[in-house]
Amino acid sequence: MKNVTVSMDDRLAQEVRVEAAKAGKSMSRYISDVVEAAVRASPAGEIRNRQLDAIEAILSGPRWDVTENGRMPTADERNARR
């Protein structure tokens, strides 16, 4: 995790401190959560989320039964021209 220094005027800092306290979070965690939500809501964040969803769908394995008599087909069986 990276540390980032953020500058803001005193009034805004006080408002953020109050909102963080209402949420039961530190200012750092509160600001991080707000920024993360904003990034995920952006078009780039939506594309990234769709890409991650696609990767997770691929890596979660096949949704069909590819076994034959309870075993996976051999390479020759998979590559046989039918």
Question: How would you describe the overall organization of this protein?
Answer:
With 82 residues, the protein is an all-alpha fold. The protein has a domain of 35 residues. 62% of the residues lie in helices and 0% in strands. The chain is built from four helices and no strands. Helix 1 packs across helix 2. The longest helix is centred in the middle third of the chain and has 17 residues. The protein starts with 9 loop residues before the first helix and ends with a helix. The mean pLDDT is 86.
Task: Determine Rg (CA atoms, Å).
Answer: 24 Å
Q: How much strand content do the residues show? A: under 5%
Summarize the amount of helix as a percent range.
55-70%
Per DSSP E runs of 2 or more residues, the count of β-strands stands at 0
Low-confidence stretches: none
What is the number of helices?
4
**Quaternary structure classification:** single chain
The largest sheet, given as strand count, sense and whether it forms a barrel, is: none
Structural class assignment: mainly alpha
How far the N terminus sits from the C terminus, by CA atoms, comes to 53 Å
Mean pLDDT reading? 86
C-alpha geometry: rod-shaped
Order of helices and strands: HHHH
SSE inventory with pairings:
Blueprint: H1 10-23, H2 27-41, H3 43-59, H4 75-79
Give a quick set of tags describing it.
single chain; 82 residues; rod-shaped
